[in-house]
Specification:
The complex is a heterodimer of chains A (539) and B (323). Chain A has 15 helices and 18 strands. The longest helix of chain A is centred in the first third of the chain and has 21 residues. A 6-stranded mixed beta sheet of chain A has the order 12-16-11-15-13-14. In chain A, strands 1-10-9-8 form a 4-stranded mixed beta sheet, with helices on one face. Chain A has a 4-stranded antiparallel beta sheet with strand order 4-5-7-6, with helices on one face. By secondary structure, chain A is an alpha+beta fold. In chain A, α8 runs antiparallel to α10, α9 packs across α11 and α14 runs antiparallel to α15. Chain B has 323 residues and is mainly α. The longest helix of chain B has 39 residues. The N and C termini of chain B lie close together (10 Å). Classes of the chains: A alpha+beta (539), B mainly alpha (323). At the A-B interface, α1, β10, α6 and α12 of A face α2, α3, α5, α7 and α8 of B.
């Protein structure tokens, strides 16, 4: 008797908690998904829900406010930009139907379609575009640094908007197509504090999906925008759901178990064999403008000695590193410019990254003036790197490779925040194994190599490189710019301020019944990263 | 009793304040700068960094920052998250409910099952069954809960496909009402099992040893000599005396449940405090971290007081009357 009473008590306790937490939110009945069972002859199935994982939750619902890696899906699906960057890292049209550039390269005029409506039913006009960019700069938002070149924005009519620049900026279109430049309705976002207290205002955009609900810690739901300006056929899906899964092992199991349609997170390297060999999983390869490299603190001895840096550069065997540490998910870095911006890369033999050559490495080591101890060790160094994949494996291989030329490496693995403080801020380090984004435009290599660059923790300073990188960003055509960038790379090849190892490659896995994924061949040209306009479920 | 309670509450408040100081020092001593992490690496705007640093008072001396924090706290204001700008108190309340749901269920289940098994074995001391149960309890005691969680996922979700791997609700279904409750309960089975299985050994061992101890007491021998039936002796005298340590352990466990279930929550993507704490740490979200640790300190202090008071109520031998 007592036992049953206890169990009853327990069950009711559970029920109460479940009710309290589970049923607190109800869905808006007016947001009934539609377009479900439309008969079509093109073989594309309409309707359905697509679920993907994400490891963390957004910190803001305003796509143009604070930089936030976790609101990308919201940004790409609820909003539109004038231009966007597709998964091949090319700039393509988004809302804009076309644009003209004036002869002097200072005025960019964009033409807008006339049938675009925000999710609240209000039409989108050139005034909203003007508001968006003026506000980004006024609020000091994420894109304000790259867009500070804007001098004036004018609206000749409701569907034309013209940007006048202070000076020629070759990266302007690329920056317009990058994060933090979504077109926002003036009537909703005016007078709000984007960077502060209003960061969580309910999103209103023009995109293929509407923001529907956010269950903290559980999921975020987007429903079909029935009035999408590319519609009524698009988007194909009724619903996109982001499931928040902090642990990557759990996300993998959830994916294998069919609970996710798109993995959504970066798969652990150990899973690649399984992902690439499964018949019901598709995994599209993506090359990011991001690369793994070893940086030296050039303000200190012997790292200021080119012989030492060349010794290290020739001692690092990138193929071995990619094979052992990156499980072959890599591509040897051969030029100082990311291959994503191939128009700017200098492929001359004398401008390339030094090749693996142990004998040469030993020769350079002998020239450094350092003397080996009885064990043949020239120098003991600490390499600071991150504590997350793939860096722990990479630094082990690096340690073995450098031991061959008499450099004894002790490994210091740090959490990102601690690494940032030690290396980037305090520059209290000798060598670092790192990686990082160098996009969305070729000019952004500057951050890492020009004298006052934000990420120039290697303390590299060459006035010639500074000048060339600056000039390369201030010329109107790719051809003209490439000349400057190639020259800069030739100097880098002489100075070897960093040892580039591999490009950052990723696979985007999803179940094979998902069609039109932005990383897939069907949609890669026309969609932005994480934009699900053309996605549909074939089952 | 009331004087005792007053004293306990005062020392409790003092403990919380000391914990608050230590938390502040530790949180701010960790290398890393929340504003730098917030603005990211893509062309951050230096003006934005300066403004945000000033806005959150991070440019002021640490002691001033602490003073301001305590001042606001006394006014009932826990501050806003540097990242999301939401009030810290709201954010924590959002996450406490799912954690309580998971952790309470597991704690109650573990206490009942563990104690029952403990009693079962105590009455069979020295038998093979007792020895086996003892070994099994050590096995689960030494099993990390996250590993157990992953194994449960592999077995019941990935291989047998009978239960979902993680999360709290089925993302594809639009369940409402009772269907939603059932769905959540289904999602609770694995995480609750992982937590319960690792908690059972505590209750098992405590119940077993205290029963054995009480069974050996002189007054039990006396009762047996009176010819009282063994069942009655057990129910009226042994059990009542032996259950006291279990109550203490339960109270202490309750206080640590929020932290204890963190890892299991992360493994099962449970929307509670677990992943929330982890993210706050990696982001160095100072106000949020201070808030979370404050809530933890308060819950430990409160539970300790509750256990003490409950103890004296249950055991007449322990009295807190002022002499």
């Amino acid at each position: 008797m007592k036992k049953t009473r206890l169990i009853a008590l327990l069950l009711s306790l559970t029920m109460i908690f479940t009710l309290v937490t589970g049923c607190a939110k109800t869905e808006d009945p007016s947001e009934k998904p539609s377009g479900g069972e439309v008969a079509q002859t093109d073989g594309i199935k309409r309707g359905g829900t697509m679920v993907m994982a994400q490891s963390a939750e957004p910190i803001t619902l305003i796509p143009n406010g604070k930089p936030d890696d976790n609101n990308i899906i919201l940004e790409q699906n609820v909003f539109n930009r004038l231009l966007k960057t597709n998964n091949n890292q090319q700039v393509i049209l988004d809302l804009a139907t076309g644009y003209d550039v004036s002869e002097d390269g200072l005025v960019y005029t964009f033409h807008l379609p006339e049938n675009v409506k925000f999710h609240d039913g209000q039409p989108m006009t050139s005034d909203d575009v003007k508001f968006t960019f003026e506000e980004i700069i006024k609020q000091g938002a994420f894109a304000s640094t790259t867009l500070s070149v804007i001098k004036e924005i004018t609206c000749p009519d409701d569907y034309t908007v013209a940007f006048t620049l202070n000076k020629i900026d070759a990266g302007f279109l690329g920056n317009l197509a990058y994060n933090g430049t979504s077109i926002l309705p003036r009537h909703v976002y005016e007078g709000l504090d984007w960077m502060g207290k209003d960061a969580m205002v309910t999103p209103v955009g023009t995109g293929p999906f509407k923001y529907s609900e956010w269950n903290k810690g559980v999921n975020m739901i987007f429903t079909r925008n029935d009035n999408y300006y590319l519609g009524p056929d698009l988007p194909y899906l009724d619903k996109v759901v982001i499931s928040f899964i902090p642990d990557s092992n759990t996300a993998m199991q959830s994916f294998y178990n069919g609970e996710l349609d798109v993995l959504g997170i970066i798969a652990p390297a150990t899973e690649y064999d399984k992902l690439l060999s499964s018949s019901n999983i598709k995994a599209d390869k993506v090359i990011y403008p991001s690369r793994f490299y070893v940086g030296f603190n050039m303000a200190e001895k012997p790292y200021d000695d080119i012989n030492f840096r060349l010794a290290v550069a020739h001692a690092i065997d990138a193929d071995d590193m990619i094979n052992k540490a990156l499980k072959n998910i890599g591509m040897k870095a051969t030029e100082y410019m990311s291959p994503v911006y191939s128009w700017a890369a200098n492929t001359d033999e004398n401008a390339k990254v030094p090749k693996y050559d142990l004998e040469k490495a030993k020769e350079y080591m002998a020239k450094t003036g350092l003397t080996p101890d009885s064990n043949g060790v020239y120098l003991k160094v600490t390499v600071d790197t991150y504590n997350y994949e793939p860096f722990p494996d990479m630094v082990q291989v690096l340690k073995d490779q450098l031991a061959k030329i008499g450099i004894e490496v002790s490994i210091n693995m740090l959490e990102y925040a601690a690494w940032d403080e030690k290396v980037s801020v305090n520059r209290d380090y000798t060598m670092a194994l790192t990686g990082g984004y160098q996009g969305p435009e070729a000019s952004n290599l500057s951050d890492r190599i020009v004298t006052d660059g934000y990420l120039n923790f290697i303390n590299y300073s060459n006035p010639e490189v500074d000048r060339l990188m600056q000039e390369g960003g201030a010329l109107p055509t790719f051809e003209q710019r490439a000349v400057k960038y190639k020259e800069a790379q030739a100097i880098l090849a002489k100075d070897v301020p960093m040892v580039l190892i591999s490009e950052w490659l990723g696979y985007i896995p999803y179940l094979s019944y998902v069609k039109g994924h932005p990383a897939s061949a069907d949609a890669v040209e026309k969609t932005a990263f994480g934009e699900f306009t053309y996605c549909w479920i074939d089952k | 009793m009331s004087r005792y309670l007053g004293r306990r509450i005062l020392t409790g408040i003092l403990c919380i304040f000391v914990a608050l100081c230590i938390n502040f020092v530790i949180i701010h001593a960790a290398p890393g700068n929340p504003i730098r992490l917030l603005v990211g690496k893509d062309n951050p705007n230096p003006q934005m960094i300066a403004e945000l640093t000033e806005k959150y008072g991070l440019d002021q001396p640490k002691i001033v920052q602490f003073g301001k924090y305590v001042g606001n706290l006394l006014k009932g204001d826990m501050g806003v998250s540097i990242y999301t700008n939401e009030p810290v108190s709201d954010m924590i309340i959002d996450r406490l409910a799912p954690t309580a749901m998971l952790a309470l269920t597991a704690a109650v289940l573990a206490a009942i099952i563990g104690t029952a098994l403990g009693i079962f074995c105590a009455r069979r001391v020295g038998t093979k069954l007792d020895a086996i149960m003892g070994s099994v309890s050590y096995l689960f005691d030494s099993t990390p809960s996250f590993w157990l969680g992953l194994m449960l996922i592999l077995i019941f979700a990935s291989t047998l496909h009978v239960l979902p791997t993680s999360g709290m609700i089925d993302m594809r279904a639009d369940n409402e009402g009772f269907a939603k409750v059932l769905d959540i309960m289904k999602h609770m089975i694995l995480p609750v099992s992982a937590l319960t299985l690792t908690l059972i050994p505590y209750y098992f061992r405590i119940a077993r040893s205290s029963i054995i101890q009480v069974m050996g007491e002189d007054f039990i021998t006396t009762l047996r000599a009176t010819g009282m039936p063994e069942k009655r002796i057990f129910r009226k005298y042994i059990f009542r005396n032996a259950i006291l340590p279990t109550i203490t352990v339960f109270g202490i466990q309750m206080a640590y449940l929020v932290t204890g279930s963190a890892i299991v929550e992360i493994v099962f993507s449970w929307p509670g405090m677990g992943s929330f704490v982890m993210t706050a740490i990696t982001r160095r979200d100072y106000p949020l971290l201070m808030g979370i640790y404050l809530v933890l300190s308060v819950s430990v202090a409160v539970m300790m007081i509750v256990v003490d008071v409950l103890y004296s109520a249950l055991d007449p031998r322990i009295s807190h009357e002022s002499k």
